[in-house]
Predict the structure.
Amino acid sequence: MKDIAIKVYYIDGTTDECEIPYDSEIAKEIIREIKSDQTNCICFGSTFVYKSAVKKIDIRPYKPEIHSTSDKKGR
């Protein structure tokens, strides 16, 4: 299942990021709220974010970071 990462940049310089399943109702609702001119806030699970406090929102495919370990080399 594909996941998406949503990163919110606030006007005060802080950020929030979450990963959610792309096909989930939560993802569809968040994207709907972001695009809507009728709502003034976005709900991320139990967190409400006011659009007036948001500078930018990035929505992209979630790619987990792969951490390489040097102790496996040469074995």
